[in-house]
Amino acid sequence: MPDFKRIFPTITVFIAFIITILCLFAGTQKNFLENVDLLTLYTPEGSTDSTAHDFYSVHIMSYCQGTLGAADPGAKVTRNVTECSHRKILFSFDPTQEWPDVSHGADLEWPRVISDDFHAFRMTTRSMAVLYSIGVGAMGAALLVKFWTAVAPRAGQGLFECGFMVLGTLTVNVASIIATVLAFEFVDLINAHGKGSNVSAKYGEKLLGMTWAAAGLLLVGSAACFVNVFVRRPAAPIEKALDDMEG
């Protein structure tokens, strides 16, 4: 029967690995977790010549755009995603590139300061994607080391597994902190600057829940791995040892 204490870190890192991959690739294709976004930007209604869409959901490596509507007048407004951008590791959403002709014009009534906000946080969003990618790589390496240990066990392999798990824990936790700051502080900044122009934003609850679930699993798994590698099991009692010798 396998020792649960030994495989527990592997279980946690595997689940966190899957969750982080889903967070990283959410919204990179249409109908693939497009509702797991960092934030959603809602644009004001412009003229019929406006190239802006009703909303833009910003993800870690891409963004999706679409329209808002309801089947019936009294029904709930739903999002209809029409297109998603190509995924990029160093992705940052730039409104001025999406509708450069009207982004600061009278048709859209777009506040230029919001475009400046996105420019100011450009390096922050890019670093977040890089940290998530490093975390995925570290977790994958930890799983490979565990598989290697099961196939050809050698001394010191547990140390490598813990090292990769700690690296994954640090990067995913820092990325989760950045995502949380962007979700709350940056969204509040957009809403403050968008007053009077019908520009608003809303943070993505699902992404935050998933990324912090992965971060928590990695913390617990890393602690368990540390105990397995560095904390030795207590020696057998002297009385039991004497009984074994007499027997």
Major sheet, described briefly? 5 strands, antiparallel
Give the termini separation: 27 Å
Percent in strands? 5-15%
Question: What letter string, H or E per element, gives the SSE order?
Answer: HEEEEHHHHEHH
Unreliable sequence segments: none
CATH architecture: Up-down Bundle
How would you name the oligomeric state of the polypeptide chains in this document? single chain
CATH topology: Butyryl-CoA Dehydrogenase, subunit A, domain 3
**Class based on secondary structure composition and strand pairing:** alpha+beta
> How many individual β-strands?
5
Percent in helix: 55-70%
Arithmetic mean of pLDDT: 78
Radius of gyration, in Å, reads 24 Å
Overall geometry comes to: elongated
Number of helices: 7
The CATH class designation is Mainly Alpha
* Number of discrete domains: 1
Main-sheet strand order equals 4-3-2-1-5
Keywords: Membrane, Transmembrane, Transmembrane helix
GO cellular component, one term: cell cortex of cell tip
Organism: Penicillium salamii
Protein name: Actin cortical patch SUR7/pH-response regulator PalI
